[in-house]
Amino acid sequence: MCETCGCGVTPGNADLMRARAGEGTAVDVLKDLLAVNDQVAAHNREHFDAHGVLAINLMSSPGAGKTALLEGTIAALRRRYRIVVIEGDLETDNDAARIRAQGVPAVQITTGTACHLDAHLVHRALHELPLAGVDLLFIENVGNLVCPASFDLGQHLNVTLLSVAEGDDKPAKYPVIFRAADLVVLSKTDLLDVMDDFDPLRAAAALAALGRGTPMIRTAARRTPDFKPWLEWLERELACPRAVPASASSRIAAAVALRA
Amino acid sequence: MHELSICQSLLAQVAEISLNNGAKAVERIVIEVGALAGVEPALLARAFEFARSGSCAAHAELAIETTQVTVSCMVCGAQSRTVPNRLLCRACGGYRTRIVAGDELRLLRVELRTLEWQPAPAAA
User: Fold this and answer.
1) Best label site of A5, A104, A209, A211, fewest CB within 10 Å?
2) Nearest residue to A34 (alpha-carbon basis) of A197, A251, A253, A260
3) What is the interface pTM, i.e. ipTM, of the complex?
4) E strand or H helix at A184, and its extent?
5) Per-residue pLDDT tens digits for A151-188
6) Residue among B37, B81, B21, B55 nearest A27 (CA)
7) Mutate to test the interface with A, among B20, B76, B85 (most CBs of A within 10 A)
């Protein structure tokens, strides 16, 4: 088609012809701004699926009990399932050391100043973590109720912890991370008898108001340890076929599923 | 949060589009930020002023379209506009909903000033 004489001009391409004369051109895009992270996350997910690994992203505020939950989980399940862990912290490898002390491989990502893990960091960590024969991978995210929610790591499931030492209105204050959860774990329930201000029903109501019907289960890791509902949930998820991430909670997968 | 790194991702996409279209400059960028996107439009606008320096979009205007949250009820089917931490159906109070709008973070449109067609220089 001639580009100079205008013989191919129609109302549909008239704008482009004017562009040739040195004016503007508009390009419609509709592309997600986190597309690069999401591509790496999808690659991670393929890697997990290729090895039949269930990948779970653990998120919470600092000190809510993620590492203690993992220690209890490993103690209960390590004879029946092969577990590996990716730890994320700004500094120290204290958490990875705790996991390794349980006899489970752990890779520590120290982010320096980054307040969340992203798919690229997880991808690099996976180079040090062979997945052959592995059943379950936990990614313990950086303690933070804001940023981790926005970054797909390639996980199949999100678990957000809320401890009874925090406010029971946290799900209302941090809707993105609580809505992203496939399961909310109410931790440190052994302290409920001394935490007068914490009402589990209020926390459950704030979570229900986020419109996903997300289950909330209770755990205690110290004093009177109780992981039963958590382990039951885990074993149910481990028994699910992993070929199609039916309860996948990555931002993209959730967006696709929710819009279907 | 991360408005600055989001601006960097945005500018990378814009630069690619600009290059693919042989543009002289980027005049206007239109993005959509949903209320549940985890990004603050005002902070994004501020970050953009820094991030665009020296790029193909150094003088570009950033237009941010904000989208409120709309949920679709899995109980009664109604669609309702609502707020980020109260995603229940406003028609029936149903607590199982799908987000149909409000979690977008995307580049909608790039307006470019394109190169003029240059005739080849005549042989000497």
Assistant:
1) A5
2) A251
3) 0.74
4) strand A183-187
5) 999 999 999 999 999 999 999 999 999 999 999 999 99
6) B21
7) B85
